[in-house]
Amino acid sequence: MLSDQAHANELTGRFPRQAFVSIVIFCVLWEIMSRLSPSLGIPPFAIPSFVRIGESLMKITPLDVIVTLARVIGALVLSFVGGVVIAMGMYRSPSLENYLHPLVRILMAVPVVSWILFAVLWFRGVEFRIAFVLIAVCGPVFLVDALDAMRGVSKDLRGMMRSFRPTAFQYFTKLMFPAILPSLITSWKINLSLAIRVVTIAELVGAVTGIGHQLAVAQELFSVADVFAWTLVLVVLLFLLEALLVRFEARVLRWRA
Amino acid sequence: MNATMSTTKSEPTAIEVENLRKVFRQATTGQSVVAIDRLSLHIAPREVVAIVGQTGCGKSTFFDMMIGLEQPSEGAIRINGKTPYADFDAFRGKMATVFQQDRLLPWRTSYDNARLPLELMGVDEKIQRERAMHWLKRLGLENFANAYPHELSGGMRQRVAIARAFVLQPDILLADEAFGHLDEVTAAELRSTFLALARECGSTAILITHQLEEAIAVGDRIVVFGKSAKLLADIHVAQWKPEDYGLLREAIQATLQSNSPDARLIRAP
Which residues of A touch B105 (CB under 8 A)? Predict the structure, then answer.
């Protein structure tokens, strides 16, 4: 559980001093281990120095970062739209929910690796394979969260809204969507880190572009420095996207006390 | 005039309730529960009717059926000749409600909450602004137009809810325990404001309450519900002198406790 301070930092996007100190300690220990590794019998490439990692970072190709980012964002947007639309259908039709709910539970239980294997076996196009895996993993999360949030909309508010006789579209846009937005933003946060990890694995096995592909190349070259550098890019990318989401959340949910 | 008489059919009627019955089936036991049992009631245009009854007597079910959220099991409700459930959309912009809790949308400011019914009707934005601000001003909230509900007191939130109802200048105004959760001073103030605005708009109003003082203060008529919304008394308040309101209150109380009309209600003193 997050402490109050940690929670406040997360909400404001501030970087706490303690986190900075712990990262510095880790870097110092890494550098010491890197320098001591030959005398400890560890191959030099296993724990590269920060100079070597810096060199790898300088060689990062922005195109691969952009490709991975585009795959993640594109797949998340599709998953989000599909998930929310199906959730709306399930919310409005209990019989549809009865049919789809077990299927969704099964989909959520399927391991990511199985989705990747299915994608490789079923589809030829690389982009389609990656999109398929991401949507299969992230779509059900959006769907289940949206459906739960819709069910949680207060009966009082639903009754009030209906008393003014809105159209079905107005009912969704003026009541349901704003009411479920906090849950949807939480889903985005969860799916963002999930998608970054899944896209990397998917690119690792099937793509010729993207960060996952570059990680595969680095592995073939036994370059821990390159793996470290590309991993750092992934982590920074995730933090940046999360920071954007937090800012968006603070903006659209400013009505919350 | 007999104090228990309701508006007769020959008089113009805004709301007709004919032999209304509502039966619910309990999900757990499967047993049927009669919430409303053969209720008939006629309400004239621009009349303000207070409905009183004990908890669980069917007031809220009746309220939901008036709005059109519940379908009658038997009988009918007709408002200006149309049925709220079957002709649901016909009441768009013609009926407004004030609920027990303010039921404001927490993500909307006072102004945005107040203009919601107009927005749903597709009214021009300029008119939305004028009317919402007019009613917020009438309710003393012009300086809180940009405040979110969590920034307002309970009384202020309920004022916004009243403004939201009045922006429509509705033919039919329904209020369900609208002031019951507020402190006495705020409730009395809002009650008189509500009544004055209802009269000004020429709305036919039904106010459901469990507070007899409120019913006497607001209603042209007081309708007393017994168990399963059995009509125990239908009192024309104008037939009672203000100095006899204490007696009226006692008589209604006795009616509610015995679930049968008290003799003192038969004729006004």
Answer: 157, 174-175, 178
